[in-house]
Amino acid sequence: MFSSAMHLQEEWAMVKDYTLNSTKSYHIGGLKSLGWELTICNALQQEGTPLRKLLTCNESFGRLLYGCLCTFLPLWNVTHVLEVGGGYGYLMKDFLEKDSSLKACMLDISPFLLNKQRETLKGFSVEYREGDFLEVLPSDLSAFDLVIMNENLGDFPSLINIRTEVFDSKNANNDPVLKWVQGIFEKYGLERPEGKVFNLNMGAIEALEKLCCAKVPYIYIGEHSCEASVSGEMSWLFQIKSTGNPERITLAGHDEYTIKFSYLQKIASFHGYESIRGPFADFIPLTLTDEARFALMYGGHYSDEAEVMSQFVEDLYKYEYLILKEKEEPI
Ligand SMILES: C[S@@+](CC[C@H](N)C(=O)[O-])C[C@H]1O[C@@H](n2cnc3c(N)ncnc32)[C@H](O)[C@@H]1O
Hints:
alpha/beta; seven-stranded mixed β-sheet; three-stranded antiparallel β-sheet; 11 helices; binds S-adenosylmethionine
């Protein structure tokens, strides 16, 4: 009995060497600026910048996204909008300027950013909620017609270095986290990762399950993808290496992980949602100047401005969006 307990313990140690990446304490106490992790929304906020000049139209991120959502969703049916992790509040300001009848709610884990949102959205009637989205009850979400989550799922907890043995080791059942991992792959029929270890966007999956269970009719998600690719004319200028495994991005005070969109798509489909997926470049159309082409071909290594330009264009392909729409029940 003793030896079998030892054996179990050894196996337990063998499987339990994953870690959990969390950004919670950073977002609650440490974050004092988003400047270190310039989001695409923030990068396009100011008019007249070299990045804005790369676009076919002189528009901000929120206005371009609103236009994109209009083509896929009946936004005239949307009244109650929740934005989770709204950063400086620019996206919601654009939405409210487009449609002043919207009833907006901003939910954020960061008290600092919630205050920034209050400043940006001054003059609009907006509700503010401070908290971790993962602690929100699905019943508190059922009143919303549309939920927006832009560039924040990578901040949600991720499991790092899970051994692929988890799929055949009976011992995984002893660990509630690994049990959860097994359950998710089984329930949704997710393709099993290859190799010895993999990372999993646990928080992103839990967040999506919550939205689907609350039956939110329309959901928008945008984030850095681990499955991004470049096609068409752009592929002559640069390539993106995607491993398909959520990758670490080290930022000021915290690490975040890229998102495996194919899993989110499959989970949403299981819950009865249709999806539209693509790179941000689909709704942020570029007009490439000779200068920008040159910057992309040479990776922008020769000047700061060229580097910013090539990084921005590449990001429009590295970031993906997923628009989810609840399928109508047959009558
Ligand atoms: C990288 S910023 C993106 C801000 C904005 N959406 C944009 O695109 O510029 C991530 C945002 O998500 C928020 N956030 C991170 N984890 C969260 C959580 N668990 N619950 C709610 N908000 C969270 C952060 O405080 C921040 O507002």
